[in-house]
Design a protein that fits this description.
alpha+beta, Cytochrome Bc1 Complex, Chain A, domain 1, 427 residues, six-stranded mixed sheet, Metalloenz_LuxS/M16, 44% helix, Peptidase_M16_C
């Protein structure tokens, strides 16, 4: 039973995606809960999974909650919080060994789904609110996570560039929330926000393993109460250039020894667009890999940067360039990076750049098929974008991309913001 495609259904207003396969020795389960990025919800949404991991109504003590995972043959349970397009996504993950490898009575998939659904929908409570000590403890955890971004100047510069670029858009918000909003949250306000989040957010549940869609549906009917009335679809809003305008330049001064030069570019092309494969190639040729133009020209030939690369958010159409430079090399580095962007517009892409970039992207796509969670993550792109794509289809599309198609992407891309983090002393 090799992986073919996810079987889709809906149960209690939750989208269910099941991939029956005997390729892996474990069940991989992921629950995605998405929320439109918004000032008032981003921080309570970020704090919620930290509190949910502390216990359930059945296992209210954190120690007992974690011991239960050990009893389930060392099952894994965790979560991630990130941004995809204009959405803040909380992803819960659980992996559980398949029944055939252990001797037990109750099916392990059912036990795993029970643990996961109770962790999300039946949290430990006191007086009909979250447990106060859990909330205060996890506020401290999240506070440290946010502060660690500020202390890591590479991450800080990347976030500040997006903040300046998207200052009037939800995309400016960091998925971990804001420190000033975090301080004001308490067990009542957080529980109220949690209830609203669970009721109104899009929810997608993925299961990969030796099972069937019918079996998973049967288990979930038993485990879940029907409290939700609808499961909204995701909406994609590209970061298109609109009217061409002057590039926004921001210089920020902090105690740093090395300059951080970041640039933000806009495009109308997102994951659901037919030009997406060409956009992947554009980013790859520009700065996605060690053979790319930014690395070769800014770092290797001119020795201007300690690092130089680009990154694409395919659900927003934003490309970011990040580089670390000597502070007095700012003007020259900006000039050479802009030369690389102009070269892309002129279609100056060598056969070697084209073939190496295709090979790198295709290899990355093929590797996705070796991991259940990577396959889940790839498929979730279809849910986010409303565009069904298989890995073989995207590989074929990438291999077919021509230099002219990359040039057409370059025509759609515009430089929006230049952000430079430098020292306090210099001119």
């Amino acid at each position: 039973m090799r992986p073919s495609k996810f079987e889709r259904s809906e149960i209690h207003s939750i989208r269910l995606h099941v991939l029956p396969t005997d390729r892996f020795k474990t069940y991989a389960i992921s629950a995605y809960i998405g929320t439109p990025l918004a000032e008032e919800t981003v921080t309570p949404t970020a704090l919620t999974p930290f509190v949910l991991r502390r216990g359930t109504q059945a296992l209210p003590e954190t120690k007992r909650f974690r011991e239960r995972l050990d009893e389930l043959y060392g099952a894994g349970f965790g979560f991630d919080i990130y941004k995809r397009g204009d959405y803040q996504i909380v992803q819960f993950r659980m992996d559980m060994i398949e029944d055939q490898y252990v001797s037990g009575t109750e099916p392990l998939l059912k036990q795993a789904l029970k643990f996961l659904t109770e962790a999300i929908t039946r949290p430990a409570l006191e007086n009909d609110h979250f447990v106060s000590k859990y909330v205060e403890s996890e506020k401290q955890t999240l506070r440290k996570r946010i502060q660690s971004i500020i202390n890591d100047k590479i991450r800080y510069a990347a976030e500040r560039c997006l903040e300046e670029m998207c200052k009037n858009e939800p995309y400016r918000l960091h998925p971990l929330g804001q420190l000033d909003k975090l301080e004001k949250l308490d067990k009542q306000s957080l529980y109220s926000a949690y209830r609203q989040w669970l009721q109104s957010s899009p929810i997608d549940l993925y299961v990969v393993g030796n099972t069937t869609s019918e079996e998973v549906q049967s288990i979930l009917r038993e485990l879940l109460a029907s409290e939700r009335s609808e499961n909204p679809a995701y909406v994609t809003k590209p970061a298109a250039c609109g009217d061409k305008r002057d590039v926004n330049t921001v210089i920020e001064r902090l105690e740093v020894g090395q300059g951080k030069l970041n640039m933000g570019l806009r495009s109308s092309i997102t994951y659901g667009d037919e030009r997406y494969a060409a956009a992947l190639m554009y980013n790859g040729v520009l700065g996605g890999y060690p053979h790319s133009k930014l690395f070769m020209n800014v770092r290797e030939k001119e020795s201007l940067a300690y690092y130089a690369s680009s990154r694409l958010d395919g659900h927003k159409g934003i490309i970011t360039i990040q580089s670390g430079i000597e502070i007095n090399n700012y003007e020259k580095a900006v000039s050479i990076i802009r030369e690389q962007l102009d070269a892309m517009v002129r279609g100056e892409i060598s056969d070697l750049e084209l073939s190496q970039t295709k090979a790198m992207i295709v290899n990355q796509l093929k590797e996705i098929q070796d991991s259940a969670y990577e396959m889940i993550g790839f498929d979730f792109n279809s849910v986010l974008s409303g565009k069904e794509r298989s890995i073989p289809e995207l590989i074929a599309a990438v291999e077919a991309v021509t230099p002219q198609q990359i040039r057409e992407v370059a025509d759609d891309v515009c430089l929006d913001t230049i952000y430079f983090l430098r020292d306090k002393e210099g001119e």
